[in-house]
Protein backbone atom coordinates (compact mmCIF):
# COMPACT_ATOMS: atom_id res chain seq x y z
CA UNK A 1 0.00 0.00 0.00
CA UNK A 2 0.83 3.67 0.01
CA UNK A 3 0.67 5.00 3.56
CA UNK A 4 0.88 8.75 4.18
CA UNK A 5 1.45 9.78 7.79
CA UNK A 6 1.38 13.29 9.31
CA UNK A 7 2.44 14.81 5.97
CA UNK A 8 3.43 18.47 5.99
CA UNK A 9 4.31 20.02 2.62
CA UNK A 10 5.41 23.52 1.67
CA UNK A 11 5.79 25.35 -1.63
CA UNK A 12 7.20 28.86 -2.04
CA UNK A 13 7.72 29.00 1.75
CA UNK A 14 4.02 28.40 2.42
CA UNK A 15 2.71 25.26 4.10
CA UNK A 16 -0.06 23.68 2.00
CA UNK A 17 -0.56 20.25 3.56
CA UNK A 18 -0.95 20.27 7.35
CA UNK A 19 -0.43 16.81 8.82
CA UNK A 20 -2.32 14.77 6.23
CA UNK A 21 -2.95 11.07 6.84
CA UNK A 22 -4.14 8.68 4.13
CA UNK A 23 -3.77 5.03 3.10
CA UNK A 24 -4.18 3.60 -0.39
CA UNK A 25 -4.39 -0.18 -0.34
CA UNK A 26 -3.99 -2.45 -3.34
CA UNK A 27 -7.30 -3.27 -4.99
CA UNK A 28 -8.89 -0.01 -3.86
CA UNK A 29 -10.08 3.11 -5.67
CA UNK A 30 -10.03 6.15 -3.42
CA UNK A 31 -11.49 9.49 -4.44
CA UNK A 32 -10.18 12.78 -3.07
CA UNK A 33 -12.60 15.67 -3.48
CA UNK A 34 -12.33 19.29 -2.44
CA UNK A 35 -12.62 22.91 -3.54
CA UNK A 36 -9.95 24.84 -5.42
CA UNK A 37 -6.89 25.52 -3.30
CA UNK A 38 -7.54 22.67 -0.87
CA UNK A 39 -4.22 20.93 -1.58
CA UNK A 40 -5.37 18.09 -3.84
CA UNK A 41 -2.88 18.72 -6.64
CA UNK A 42 -0.15 19.41 -4.07
CA UNK A 43 -0.76 15.93 -2.69
CA UNK A 44 -0.59 14.37 -6.18
CA UNK A 45 2.62 16.17 -7.11
CA UNK A 46 4.22 15.44 -3.75
CA UNK A 47 3.53 11.73 -4.17
CA UNK A 48 5.18 11.86 -7.59
CA UNK A 49 8.22 13.75 -6.26
CA UNK A 50 7.80 17.17 -7.88
CA UNK A 51 10.80 19.27 -6.74
CA UNK A 52 8.64 22.36 -6.17
CA UNK A 53 7.05 20.71 -3.13
CA UNK A 54 9.07 20.14 0.04
CA UNK A 55 8.12 17.59 2.68
CA UNK A 56 8.94 19.24 6.00
CA UNK A 57 7.53 16.49 8.21
CA UNK A 58 5.85 13.12 7.97
CA UNK A 59 6.37 10.12 5.70
CA UNK A 60 5.17 8.52 2.46
CA UNK A 61 5.62 4.76 2.52
CA UNK A 62 5.28 2.85 -0.73
CA UNK A 63 4.99 -0.74 0.42
CA UNK A 64 7.81 -0.93 3.01
CA UNK A 65 9.94 2.01 1.87
CA UNK A 66 9.76 5.70 2.75
CA UNK A 67 10.00 7.37 -0.67
CA UNK A 68 10.19 11.00 0.50
CA UNK A 69 13.83 11.27 -0.58
CA UNK A 70 13.44 9.34 -3.86
CA UNK A 71 13.56 11.10 -7.26
CA UNK A 72 10.48 10.98 -9.52
CA UNK A 73 12.03 8.44 -11.91
CA UNK A 74 12.81 6.02 -9.07
CA UNK A 75 9.26 6.36 -7.76
CA UNK A 76 7.94 5.58 -11.24
CA UNK A 77 10.12 2.47 -11.46
CA UNK A 78 8.61 1.32 -8.16
CA UNK A 79 5.13 1.41 -9.73
CA UNK A 80 3.90 4.98 -9.15
CA UNK A 81 2.12 6.80 -12.00
CA UNK A 82 0.85 10.38 -12.14
CA UNK A 83 -1.76 11.56 -14.61
CA UNK A 84 -1.16 15.31 -14.57
CA UNK A 85 -3.88 17.93 -14.28
CA UNK A 86 -2.14 19.89 -17.06
CA UNK A 87 -0.11 17.50 -19.23
CA UNK A 88 2.81 19.32 -20.90
CA UNK A 89 3.29 19.72 -24.64
CA UNK A 90 6.70 18.69 -25.98
CA UNK A 91 7.75 19.69 -29.49
CA UNK A 92 9.93 17.24 -31.38
CA UNK A 93 8.96 14.13 -29.38
CA UNK A 94 6.33 11.93 -30.99
CA UNK A 95 3.76 10.13 -28.87
CA UNK A 96 5.06 6.77 -30.10
CA UNK A 97 8.67 7.55 -29.16
CA UNK A 98 7.63 8.99 -25.82
CA UNK A 99 5.70 5.85 -24.89
CA UNK A 100 8.49 3.56 -26.09
CA UNK A 101 11.20 5.39 -24.14
CA UNK A 102 9.01 5.64 -21.03
CA UNK A 103 8.24 1.92 -21.15
CA UNK A 104 11.92 1.06 -21.65
CA UNK A 105 12.85 3.26 -18.70
CA UNK A 106 10.30 1.59 -16.41
CA UNK A 107 11.01 -2.00 -17.44
CA UNK A 108 14.71 -1.72 -18.27
CA UNK A 109 14.05 -3.66 -21.50
CA UNK A 110 14.46 -2.39 -25.06
CA UNK A 111 11.24 -2.42 -27.10
CA UNK A 112 11.01 -3.14 -30.80
CA UNK A 113 9.38 0.02 -32.27
CA UNK A 114 7.37 -1.90 -34.88
CA UNK A 115 6.00 -4.50 -32.44
CA UNK A 116 5.22 -1.83 -29.87
CA UNK A 117 3.43 0.27 -32.50
CA UNK A 118 1.04 -2.62 -33.16
CA UNK A 119 0.38 -2.96 -29.42
CA UNK A 120 -0.31 0.77 -29.10
CA UNK A 121 -2.72 0.78 -32.05
CA UNK A 122 -4.66 -2.10 -30.52
CA UNK A 123 -4.96 -0.33 -27.17
CA UNK A 124 -6.04 2.91 -28.88
CA UNK A 125 -8.99 1.25 -30.59
CA UNK A 126 -10.92 1.03 -27.34
CA UNK A 127 -10.21 4.69 -26.56
CA UNK A 128 -11.52 6.08 -29.84
CA UNK A 129 -8.07 7.43 -30.63
CA UNK A 130 -6.77 7.82 -34.16
CA UNK A 131 -3.46 5.93 -34.65
CA UNK A 132 -2.18 9.07 -36.38
CA UNK A 133 -1.81 10.53 -32.86
CA UNK A 134 1.25 8.31 -32.46
CA UNK A 135 3.04 10.37 -35.12
CA UNK A 136 2.17 13.72 -33.57
CA UNK A 137 4.33 15.59 -31.09
CA UNK A 138 3.38 14.94 -27.48
CA UNK A 139 0.20 16.89 -26.66
CA UNK A 140 1.04 19.60 -29.23
CA UNK A 141 -2.28 20.89 -30.60
CA UNK A 142 -4.24 18.26 -28.66
CA UNK A 143 -7.64 19.18 -27.27
CA UNK A 144 -8.28 18.75 -23.55
CA UNK A 145 -10.09 15.49 -24.19
CA UNK A 146 -7.29 14.16 -26.40
CA UNK A 147 -4.72 14.93 -23.71
CA UNK A 148 -6.72 13.07 -21.07
CA UNK A 149 -7.25 10.06 -23.32
CA UNK A 150 -3.53 10.01 -23.99
CA UNK A 151 -2.97 9.92 -20.23
CA UNK A 152 -5.20 6.82 -20.11
CA UNK A 153 -3.17 5.27 -22.93
CA UNK A 154 -0.03 5.87 -20.88
CA UNK A 155 -1.71 4.20 -17.90
CA UNK A 156 -2.58 1.16 -20.01
CA UNK A 157 0.89 0.91 -21.56
CA UNK A 158 3.03 1.54 -18.47
CA UNK A 159 0.75 -0.61 -16.28
CA UNK A 160 1.82 0.78 -12.87
CA UNK A 161 0.73 -0.52 -9.47
CA UNK A 162 -0.39 2.84 -8.07
CA UNK A 163 -2.15 5.37 -10.29
CA UNK A 164 -2.51 8.95 -9.08
CA UNK A 165 -5.04 10.67 -11.34
CA UNK A 166 -5.16 14.43 -10.84
CA UNK A 167 -8.47 15.79 -12.19
CA UNK A 168 -8.44 13.44 -15.16
CA UNK A 169 -12.09 14.38 -15.76
CA UNK A 170 -11.39 18.12 -16.01
CA UNK A 171 -12.95 19.78 -19.07
CA UNK A 172 -14.23 16.55 -20.64
CA UNK A 173 -17.46 16.21 -22.58
CA UNK A 174 -19.72 13.23 -21.86
CA UNK A 175 -18.22 10.95 -24.51
CA UNK A 176 -14.63 11.67 -23.47
CA UNK A 177 -15.58 11.24 -19.81
CA UNK A 178 -16.94 7.77 -20.50
CA UNK A 179 -13.79 6.77 -22.40
CA UNK A 180 -11.55 7.99 -19.57
CA UNK A 181 -13.73 6.23 -16.99
CA UNK A 182 -13.54 3.02 -19.00
CA UNK A 183 -9.75 3.31 -19.04
CA UNK A 184 -9.72 3.60 -15.25
CA UNK A 185 -12.12 0.68 -14.80
CA UNK A 186 -10.05 -1.49 -17.15
CA UNK A 187 -6.99 -0.71 -15.05
CA UNK A 188 -8.65 -1.68 -11.76
CA UNK A 189 -7.63 -4.98 -10.22
CA UNK A 190 -6.67 -6.80 -7.05
CA UNK A 191 -3.02 -5.74 -7.39
CA UNK A 192 -3.74 -2.17 -8.56
CA UNK A 193 -4.66 1.01 -6.70
CA UNK A 194 -6.15 4.29 -7.88
CA UNK A 195 -6.14 7.68 -6.16
CA UNK A 196 -8.68 9.69 -8.12
CA UNK A 197 -8.62 13.44 -7.49
CA UNK A 198 -11.66 15.38 -8.65
CA UNK A 199 -13.90 18.38 -8.01
CA UNK A 200 -17.10 16.71 -9.08
CA UNK A 201 -19.19 13.61 -8.57
CA UNK A 202 -19.83 13.02 -12.28
CA UNK A 203 -16.84 10.74 -12.97
CA UNK A 204 -17.70 8.81 -9.81
CA UNK A 205 -20.96 7.83 -11.49
CA UNK A 206 -18.82 5.75 -13.88
CA UNK A 207 -15.90 4.86 -11.59
CA UNK A 208 -17.29 3.63 -8.26
CA UNK A 209 -14.87 4.46 -5.42
CA UNK A 210 -14.32 2.29 -2.38
CA UNK A 211 -13.70 5.40 -0.25
CA UNK A 212 -14.27 9.14 -0.62
CA UNK A 213 -12.25 11.70 1.31
CA UNK A 214 -12.95 15.41 1.41
CA UNK A 215 -9.92 17.69 1.56
CA UNK A 216 -10.20 21.28 2.75
CA UNK A 217 -7.37 23.55 3.81
CA UNK A 218 -4.68 20.93 3.34
CA UNK A 219 -6.39 18.34 5.55
CA UNK A 220 -8.81 15.44 5.23
CA UNK A 221 -11.92 16.76 6.97
CA UNK A 222 -14.43 14.01 6.22
CA UNK A 223 -14.37 10.43 4.92
CA UNK A 224 -17.01 8.01 3.81
CA UNK A 225 -18.33 5.87 0.99
CA UNK A 226 -19.62 6.74 -2.48
CA UNK A 227 -22.68 8.45 -0.98
CA UNK A 228 -20.44 11.16 0.47
CA UNK A 229 -19.68 12.33 -3.07
CA UNK A 230 -23.41 12.55 -3.76
CA UNK A 231 -23.88 14.69 -0.65
CA UNK A 232 -21.17 17.07 -1.86
CA UNK A 233 -22.87 17.27 -5.25
CA UNK A 234 -26.04 18.46 -3.51
CA UNK A 235 -24.69 20.70 -0.74
CA UNK A 236 -21.25 21.78 -1.99
CA UNK A 237 -18.14 22.33 0.12
CA UNK A 238 -19.14 25.55 1.86
CA UNK A 239 -20.32 23.91 5.09
CA UNK A 240 -17.06 21.98 5.45
CA UNK A 241 -15.01 25.09 4.76
CA UNK A 242 -16.75 26.83 7.65
CA UNK A 243 -16.18 23.86 9.95
CA UNK A 244 -12.37 24.02 9.89
State the helical fraction. Answer: 25-40%
Query: What's the number of extended β-strand segments?
Result: 12
Overall geometry comes to: globular
Q: How many helices in DSSP terms? A: 8
Question: Largest sheet, if any?
Answer: 6 strands, mixed
Parts with pLDDT < 50 across at least 5 consecutive residues:
none
Distance between the termini: 29 Å
Strand order of the largest sheet: 6-9-10-3-11-12
What is the arithmetic mean of pLDDT?
Answer: 91
- Secondary-structure-based class equals alpha/beta
The ordered string of helix (H) and strand (E) elements is EEEHEEHEEHHEHEHEEEHH
Strand content: 25-35%
- Taking all Cα atoms into account, the compactness measure Rg is 18 Å
Describe it for me?
By secondary structure, the chain is α/β, with parallel strands linked by helices. It has eight helices and twelve strands. The strands form three sheets. A six-stranded mixed sheet has the order 6-9-10-3-11-12, sandwiched between helices. It is globular and about 50 Å long.
What is the topology?
Blueprint (H helix, E strand, L loop, with lengths): L1 E10 L2 E11 L4 E5 L6 H9 L5 E9 L2 E2 L5 H6 L2 E4 L6 E5 H13 L5 H13 L11 E2 L5 H15 L3 E5 L7 H14 L5 E6 L12 E6 L2 E6 L1 H10 L2 H6 L1
Parallel strand pairs: 3-10, 3-11, 6-9, 9-10
Antiparallel strand pairs: 1-2, 1-4, 4-5, 7-8, 11-12
Amino acid sequence: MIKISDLHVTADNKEILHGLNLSLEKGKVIAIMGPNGSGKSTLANTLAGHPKYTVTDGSIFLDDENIVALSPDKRAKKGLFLSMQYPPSIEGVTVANFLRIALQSITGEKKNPIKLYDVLVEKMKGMNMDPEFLKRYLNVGFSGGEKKRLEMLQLAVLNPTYAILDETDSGLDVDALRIVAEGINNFRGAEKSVLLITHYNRILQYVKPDEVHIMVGGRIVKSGGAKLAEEIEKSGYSLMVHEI
